[in-house]
Task: inverse folding
């Protein structure tokens, strides 16, 4: 399970998400790409009466936006959780591209310093089996974390981690 992140005022980045694979039912068509794939109603992650105890007494003053990612055969999902909702996880965007029969979508995300947008690089998991696709085949998009609006970019990028700390420890792609 990927670790969630909290975005105060600095840029943050996650590593390549290793999702749990899910298979669709035999004969079912592949899911089409969606943005803002939100369930109609969700129970709060932390029920109202328990929030002070679970989240700490100062949670109401926090401007943090928690976020995490996951992937499955429908796409690479960017989830967010806000204070006003008791940190209930909601899907901000689901990223995928038509024409790929992927068992899972993977990716990396970097949240801008303002905390308002996320830049994602995503691809079918099978791209990791090809050096060229891993190095330059990832699809790119900017996601508005408040509205869920997805702006797909006309550029492909590396799925490799490029965080400076990671580059010192391991060999980059």
Result:
């Amino acid at each position: 399970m990927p670790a969630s992140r909290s975005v105060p005022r600095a840029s943050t980045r996650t590593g390549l998400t290793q999702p749990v694979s899910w298979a669709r039912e035999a004969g079912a068509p592949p899911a089409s790409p969606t943005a803002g794939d939100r369930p109609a109603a969700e129970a709060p992650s932390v029920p109202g009466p328990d929030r002070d105890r679970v989240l700490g007494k100062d949670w109401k003053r926090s401007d943090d936006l928690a976020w995490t990612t996951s992937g499955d055969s429908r796409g690479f999902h960017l989830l967010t959780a806000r204070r006003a909702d008791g940190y209930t996880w909601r899907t901000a965007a689901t990223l995928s591209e038509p024409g790929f029969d992927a068992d899972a979508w993977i990716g990396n995300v970097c949240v801008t310093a303002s905390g308002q947008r996320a830049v994602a690089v995503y691809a079918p998991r099978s791209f990791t089996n090809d050096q060229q696709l891993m190095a330059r085949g990832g699809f790119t998009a900017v996601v508005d974390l408040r509205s869920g609006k997805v702006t797909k970019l006309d550029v492909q990028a590396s799925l490799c981690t490029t965080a400076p700390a990671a580059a010192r420890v391991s060999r980059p792609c």
About this structure: The radius of gyration is 17 Å. The chain has one domain: 5-23+34-165. Confidence is low (pLDDT under 50) at residues 1-15, 17-41, 165-173.
